[in-house]
């Protein structure tokens, strides 16, 4: 690990690049779900099929690889930078777990929509769109301000 200390800033840069990709995907997928569900509810089967294709591509090309990279690089930073004892990191991990859980929920919802199952009403789905922005705000404050 000591030999990686000189590369610390490069690892931070890579971590932030993949954070941007992951967040971009987490902002896009829930919006797709709203449009997908509206198409399904209105009986526009062709359009719904297009959303299934878009969601699958977004998931496999951006969302899942970016989430894995963020986790691997984040855990590496915590180890190389010896941050494991820090309160801000523990709090950040709680929020990152929340974001990962949200990721899993959105992917699961997309898979259910692909089978024609609509569990939530449009309003709830739209409100849930705001979750990634709120959680990301908390994470960025914790990382930069390090209040504890
Ligand atoms: C997956 C688990 C994660 C772990 C273990 C982790 C850990 C870390 C660590 C140890 C640092 C270095 C902090 C420093 O040197 O002061 C860091 C930097 C950073 N992380 Fe994460 N992180 C994770 C996920 C995330 C997520 C999901 C976001 C945003 C939504 C994020 C945003 C950032 C930012 C913006 C920085 C740069 C801060 C700086 O300039 O030093 N991280 N992360």
TrEMBL record:
Q: In which pathway does it act?
A: Porphyrin-containing compound metabolism; protoporphyrin-IX biosynthesis; protoporphyrin-IX from protoporphyrinogen-IX: step 1/1
MF-aspect GO terms: metal ion binding; protoporphyrinogen oxidase activity
Q: Could you say which enzyme class this protein belongs to?
A: oxidoreductase
Q: Quote the subcellular location field of this record.
A: Cell membrane
Required cofactors, per record? heme b
A Gene Ontology BP annotation from the UniProt entry: protoporphyrinogen IX biosynthetic process
UniProt binding sites for heme = 15, 92
By its UniProt entry, which Pfam families does this protein fall under? UPF0093
The record lists the organism as Sphingomonas liriopis
- According to UniProt, the name of this protein is Protoporphyrinogen IX oxidase
Reactions that this protein is recorded to catalyse:
protoporphyrinogen IX + 3 A = protoporphyrin IX + 3 AH2
Membrane-traversing stretches: 6-29, 61-81, 87-106, 127-145
The subunit field of the Swiss-Prot or TrEMBL record says: Homodimer.
Q: Which UniProt keywords apply?
A: Cell membrane, Heme, Iron, Membrane, Metal-binding, Oxidoreductase, Transmembrane, Transmembrane helix
Q: What is its EC number?
A: 1.3.99.-
Q: What does this protein do?
A: Catalyzes the oxidation of protoporphyrinogen IX to protoporphyrin IX.
**Entry cofactor note text?**
Binds 1 heme b (iron(II)-protoporphyrin IX) group per subunit.
Is-annotated flag, keyword Transmembrane helix? yes
């Amino acid at each position: 690990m000591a030999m990686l200390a000189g590369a610390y800033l490069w690892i931070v840069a890579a971590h932030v690049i993949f954070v941007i990709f992951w967040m971009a995907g987490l902002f896009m997928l829930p919006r797709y779900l709203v449009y997908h569900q509206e198409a399904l509810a209105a009986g526009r089967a062709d359009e719904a099929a297009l959303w299934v294709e878009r969601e699958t591509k977004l998931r496999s090309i951006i969302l899942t690889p970016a989430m894995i990279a963020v986790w691997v690089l984040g855990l590496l930073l915590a180890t190389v930078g010896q941050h494991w004892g820090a309160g801000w990191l523990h709090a950040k991990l709680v929020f990152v777990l929340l974001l990962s859980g949200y990721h899993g929920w959105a992917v699961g919802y997309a898979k259910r929509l692909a089978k024609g199952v609509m569990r939530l009403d449009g309003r709830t789905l739209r409100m849930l769109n705001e979750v990634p922005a709120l959680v990301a705000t908390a994470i960025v404050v914790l990382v930069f301000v390090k209040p504890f």
